């Protein structure tokens, strides 16, 4: 199953939930709904990324209106899943779960998060304007839905985009960005790379860990027709298409800054921001970083386009999170958390959220003429979410273990410690061992979700 589309189940549920509340919109308010929960404190983990800094800016508005305190801890992404799992396993104090799209299966199957319909059945705490159909269907399905049940609402949503320095491209004789990966490598890269001046055509975040597995390794499978797994859930990494993509990644290395294999998002974004690299494929959420004069020198030279197309077409990355209510929390805190999640992902604050640096999962905000005119990322972002996006990372509970394998051997490939072919075989065999132990080959677990 190569592409993730919004499932019929999720859409049907979204429709039912959107219409389930008998309360009239004019009779419901966030302040009134929150009255029983004044003084409650809810706990949530945030990341040190633009979307979270944006919601933090807006938090005083929620706390003033509701009397509910939001206690947040900023944690590196690499430590977030482990920290949350330990908290859930020990019946800790988290009230709101931050759920990466590849964690939703694990969190749902372990009963750590509460289905949304548990709360939408209570009109006193559910905004009649919630409108789940107002989210991009792809996002609601990918980030918040498991087995046809909605668990969380999309928050901090990403699409892979091509950010580029149009001034550097113009100086090299180009009046538009490359449309294909092949064009980027063969035509653009040689003219945009000057090692004596320390300038390079392209930069790829590749640090060992989830950055290597999700942002580097997987990015070059789908556009070339490859995939991590075949329909039997066996490794597909030794297929011609997968090897074509991984070998292409190796071919880009001479046109990237030295040490790029150790670059995380911050270093890769900074390479474009400081004029070291001319092009970067990165999540839409980093647009605010690249347009901030405090962190970026690129200024008016910044431009945004869809990711280049490969032999299999234009298949940009999809990433993001949902916010879900933690089942371990006491009932009153769960209800307070549900009010916060609705507010944080609502149409009502979507424009303020985008203007503060976040990327909303709501469709309506991107129809706003001011937003469309002000933010270059809107058009390619909406295009990718409307047409469907390849899900690079399988959404099953075994992903974290597989990610570690890819992180190790994918890095070895880039560093030349093993060949692409050898690395693909190592990842494939180790990945199948994990899936075998997890019960995916004996019918204990569903193969595809």
Describe this structure in words.
This protein is of the alpha+beta class. The protein has a domain at 8-158 and 318-387: 3-Layer(aba) Sandwich (D-Maltodextrin-Binding Protein, domain 2), CATH 3.40.190.10. The protein has helices spanning 8-19, 30-34, 50-66, 77-89, 104-109, 117-120, 137-144, 166-171, 181-192, 210-217, 240-252, 265-273, 287-290, 331-344, 347-355, 369-374, 378-387, 399-414, 420-438, and strands at 41-46, 69-74, 96-100, 145-146, 149-150, 152-165, 200-203, 277-283, 302-306, 318-325. Strands 3, 6, 7, 8, 9 and 10 form a 6-stranded mixed beta sheet that branches. α3 (50-66) links the parallel β1 and β2 (69-74).
Concise summary:
With 449 residues, the chain is an alpha+beta fold. The protein is built from 19 helices and 10 strands. The protein has a domain of 221 residues: Periplasmic binding protein-like II (D-Maltodextrin-Binding Protein, domain 2).
Shape: globular
Find the structural class using helix and strand composition.
alpha+beta
Radius of gyration: 22 Å
Distance between the termini: 9 Å
Under the CATH scheme, the architecture of the domain at 8-158 and 318-387 is 3-Layer(aba) Sandwich
Largest sheet: 6 strands, mixed
Note poorly predicted spans: 1-21
Break the fold down into its secondary structure elements and pairings:
Blueprint: H1 8-19, H2 30-34, E1 41-46, H3 50-66, E2 69-74, H4 77-89, E3 96-100, H5 104-109, H6 117-120, H7 137-144, E4 145-146, E5 149-150, E6 152-165, H8 166-171, H9 181-192, E7 200-203, H10 210-217, H11 240-252, H12 265-273, E8 277-283, H13 287-290, E9 302-306, E10 318-325, H14 331-344, H15 347-355, H16 369-374, H17 378-387, H18 399-414, H19 420-438
Parallel strand pairs: 1-2, 7-8
Antiparallel strand pairs: 3-10, 4-5, 6-8, 6-9, 6-10
């Amino acid at each position: 199953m190569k592409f993730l589309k919004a499932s019929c189940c999720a859409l049907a549920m979204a429709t039912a939930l959107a219409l389930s509340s008998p309360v009239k919109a004019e009779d419901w308010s966030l302040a009134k709904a929150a009255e029983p929960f004044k003084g409650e404190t809810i706990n949530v983990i945030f990341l040190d990324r633009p979307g979270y800094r944006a919601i933090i800016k807006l938090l005083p508005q929620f706390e003033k209106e509701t009397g509910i305190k939001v206690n947040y801890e900023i944690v590196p992404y690499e430590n977030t899943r482990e920290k949350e799992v330990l908290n859930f396993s020990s019946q800790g104090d988290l009230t709101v779960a931050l759920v990466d799209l590849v964690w939703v299966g694990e969190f749902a199957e372990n009963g750590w998060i509460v289905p949304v319909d548990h709360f939408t059945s209570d009109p006193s705490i559910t905004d009649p304007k919630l409108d789940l159909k107002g989210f991009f269907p792809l996002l609601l399905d990918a980030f918040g839905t498991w087995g046809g049940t909605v668990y969380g609402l999309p928050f901090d949503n990403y699409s892979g985009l091509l950010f580029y320095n149009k001034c550097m491209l113009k100086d090299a004789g180009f009046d538009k960005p490359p449309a294909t990966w092949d064009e980027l490598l063969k035509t653009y890269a040689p003219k945009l790379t000057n090692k004596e001046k320390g300038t390079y055509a392209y930069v790829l975040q590749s640090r060992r860990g989830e950055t290597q597995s999700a942002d580097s390794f997987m990015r070059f499978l789908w556009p070339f027709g490859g995939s991590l797994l075949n329909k039997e859930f066996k490794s597909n990494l030794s297929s011609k298409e997968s090897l074509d993509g991984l070998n292409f990644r190796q071919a880009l290395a001479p046109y990237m800054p030295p040490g790029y294999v150790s670059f995380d998002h911050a270093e890769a974004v900074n390479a474009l921001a400081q004029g070291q690299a001319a092009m970067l494929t990165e999540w839409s959420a980093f647009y605010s970083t690249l347009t901030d004069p405090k962190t970026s020198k690129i200024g008016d030279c910044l431009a945004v386009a869809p990711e280049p197309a490969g032999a299999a077409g234009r298949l940009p990355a999809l990433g993001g999170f949902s916010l879900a209510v933690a089942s371990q929390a006491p009932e009153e805190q769960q209800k307070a958390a549900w009010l916060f999640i609705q507010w944080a992902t609502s149409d009502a604050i979507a424009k303020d959220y985008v203007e503060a640096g976040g990327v909303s999962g709501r469709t309506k905000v991107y129809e706003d003429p001011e937003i469309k005119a002000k933010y270059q990322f809107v058009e390619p972002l909406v295009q990718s979410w409307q047409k469907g996006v390849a899900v690079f990372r399988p959404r099953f509970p075994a992903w974290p273990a597989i990610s570690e394998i890819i992180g190790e051997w994918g890095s070895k490939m880039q560093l030349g410690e093993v060949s692409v072919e050898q690395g693909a075989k190592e990842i494939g065999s180790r990945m199948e061992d994990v899936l075998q132990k997890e019960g995916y080959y004996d019918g204990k677990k569903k193969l595809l979700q």
